[in-house]
Amino acid sequence: MWVQHYLDDLLCLPLVLTATLFVLRFFYGQRVRLSSYHVAFTVLYFSLAFEVFFPQFMPRYTGDFLDAVLYATGGVIFYRFLNK
Which chain regions cross the lipid bilayer (predicted)? Predict the structure, then answer.
């Protein structure tokens, strides 16, 4: 059950930020890296959008604090291991 409901939240930001870094490197060169501020902003943005704002207006979404924690964990994983 954990894999079915929470793995996508854990993997969301590493995938999104890796794709973003790929595009940035295509245009600006291989030395581009995302700063901790970029990663923190993305974590905050995803957490607020998908756990606070969307659940208020769309019944498809439900707010869950654990999802926000998993977004933050995914951001840390990206920043620590994939942002090279």
Answer: 6-27, 39-59, 65-82
Angle at 70 between CA 40 and CA 58, to 5 degrees: 90
- Residues 39, 17 contacting (CB under 8 angstroms): yes
pTM across the whole model = 0.93
Asked if 65 contacts 73 with a C-beta cutoff of 8 angstroms, the reply is: no
Is the separation of the CB atoms in 62 and 4 below 8 Å? no
Q: What is the pLDDT of residues 8-46, one digit of tens each?
A: 999 999 999 999 999 999 999 999 999 999 999 999 999
Dihedral angle, C-alpha 11, 13, 14, 19, nearest 10 °: 120
Please report where in the chains the tokens 């769309």 appear, as a residue: 58
Q: What is the 3-state secondary structure (H, E, C) of 7-55?
A: HHHHHHHHHHHHHHHHHHHHHHCCCCCCCHHHHHHHHHHHHHHHHHHHH
